[in-house]
Specification:
mainly alpha, about 90% helix
Amino acid sequence: MSDFSYSIPGLLFPAISLLMLAYTNRFFGLASLVRQLVDRHKKQPDSHIRAQINNLRIRIALIQYSQAMGVLSLLMCTSSMFALFITRQNEARVMFGCAMFFMVVSLILALREIHLSVRALNVEIDDILDSE
C-alpha cells in the first residue's frame, strides 16, 4: 500500500454510517420492547418476563458498546484523513488500521447481540410450543 490516499479511509465512511443507523434502530426497538415488558411485569409479575428483561439488558449493553466502537472507528477514520491532509502518511496508516480494528470489534459485538436475540426468540417459541 505505497500510495495511501483519501479514498482508502473514505471507503469506511458509508459502512460506518449504515452500521450506526442499524445500531440506533435496533437500540430504539429494544428500548420500546423493554418498556412494554416492564409495564407487563408491573401489572402481573412473571419470571419469564423478568428473564426476557435481563436478556434485553445485556443486548442493549452490547449495542451500546457496538455503537461506541463504531464511533471510535469513525473518529480514527476521520483522523486518518486529517493526517493525510497534513501529509503524515505513516500516522494516517496507523489511524486507518485502528479504524478497521474498531470496526471489527463493533461487528463482533453486533454478532454477539444477534446471537442473544435468536436465543430470546427461541425461548419465546419454546414457551408457545410447550403450552400446546
